[in-house]
Amino acid sequence: MMLSKGYSLLKVKSEMELDPEAEEPAIIPKSRMASFQFNLAGLACRSTCFVLFITGVVIIVSTLGWTPSDRYCAAQLSIWSPLLEAVEYEERDWENTYIIGDSGFTGPPTAELEAKWINVSQGN
């Protein structure tokens, strides 16, 4: 083999040495790098969804055990007054014998019953 002046016989170890503009081979192939980035994005998405789900469960569980008191409801539904704090509420079952008993205004409609209601409505 005849070599021209100034050149020597070089042993080429790789294609990289022949073409200096070629890209250097990556340590991790591009296909694996893309799947790694995809897995990383998926992991971030899954972990975010998990945190949001747990937060929602905690909020729901904490609100299920909470019931507003009578004082809280009165404060929300009433105009502000300094006396609101002094009001005490109690539960009662009212039994009114006038409504439950025979008052003369209950029963099936009859002419006599209609006459009684007309008298009441006219203020007699």
Automatic annotation (TrEMBL):
GO terms for biological process: mycotoxin biosynthetic process. Pfam families: UstYa. Keywords: Membrane, Transmembrane, Transmembrane helix. It comes from the Eukaryota. The chain crosses the membrane at residues 40-66. The keyword Membrane applies. Belongs to the ustYa family. This is Uncharacterized protein.
